[in-house]
Amino acid sequence: MPAKKVPAPHPDLESVLVTDAQIRRRVRSLGRELKKTYGNEEITVVSIMNGALIFTADLLREVDNVVRLDCIRTTSYGSSTESHGTPKLVHGLTLDVADRHVLIVDDILDTGKTLSLIASMIRGMRPASLRVCVLLDKKGRRQVPFEADFVGFGIPDKFVVGYGLDFAERYRNLHCIGVLKASKQKAHL
Ligand code: IMP
Ligand code: MG
C-alpha cells in the first residue's frame, strides 16, 4: 500500500507542534466536552479576534446547541513575539450576556492577561455562567493566575503560528500549529 501522503510543513516553520489531523480530532472531542457540560442549553460564544477565528469556526460546528456568536478584539502583540503591557479592549460586545451561558473562546492562553481582563469584564455583566475554552495553553508563561475550563493542547514556551495564530498578521492560514524559525521572527517588522 502506498504510504499516506503527509503535506510538507511550511518552509518558515522550524517544527510542527500540532498537526492538522491532531487539531481536527481534538476539536471534535472538545465539541463533545462542550455538549456534556451544556446539554441542550443555548450558548453565547464570545470569540476573541483575530486569533480565535478559525478555531471558533470549527468548534462551533461540532456542537448542535443553539449558539449566539459575538466577537471582541483586544490590543495585540503587534509585530513582536512578546506580549507587552496591559491588553486593552478595542472592540467590545454587541450582544447582551446577562443571564446567558457565556463561553469565551480564544486561541491561546499565555500570560493570562487578556483572558483575565475579558473574563472579569463579562463577569461584571452577570452572565448565568461563564466558561473559557482555549485551543492552546502555555502554562509555564502565566503572569496572572488563570485557568481555562476547556483546553485543546498544553504546549511548551515556544512562539507558535498557524490555525489562526499569527506573527505580524501572517501564517494564520496554516493548517497545522508550528514553531516559527528564529530567522523569520525578525521579518515583517
Ligand atoms: P496573553 O499573554 O495570555 O494575554 O495572550 C495574549 C494573546 O497573545 C493571545 O490571545 C494570542 O493572540 C497572542 N499569543 C500568545 N502567545 C502566542 C503565540 O505563541 N503565537 C501567536 N500569538 C500568541
Ligand atoms: Mg488572541
Identify the strand order in the major beta sheet: 4-3-2-5-6-7
SS content category: alpha/beta
Low-confidence stretches: none
Along the chain, the helix and strand elements come as EHEHEEEHEEEE
| Annotated CATH architecture | 3-Layer(aba) Sandwich
Helix content bin: 10-25%
Tally the beta strands. 9
Name the shape in a single word.
Answer: globular
Mean of pLDDT: 91
Bound molecules: inosinic acid, magnesium ion
Oligomerization category of the chains in this entry: single chain
Quickly name the level 1 CATH class: Alpha Beta
Number of structural domains: 1
Strand coverage percent: 25-35%
* Sheet with most strands: 6 strands, mixed
Beginning-to-end CA distance, first to last residue: 46 Å
Count up the helices. 3
Secondary-structure map:
Elements: E1 13-18, H1 20-38, E2 43-49, H2 53-60, E3 67-74, E4 89-91, E5 101-109, H3 113-123, E6 129-137, E7 150-154, E8 160-161, E9 177-180
Parallel strand pairs: 2-3, 2-5, 5-6, 6-7
Antiparallel strand pairs: 1-9, 3-4, 8-9
Helix pairs in contact: 1-2
Bound molecules: inosinic acid and magnesium ion.
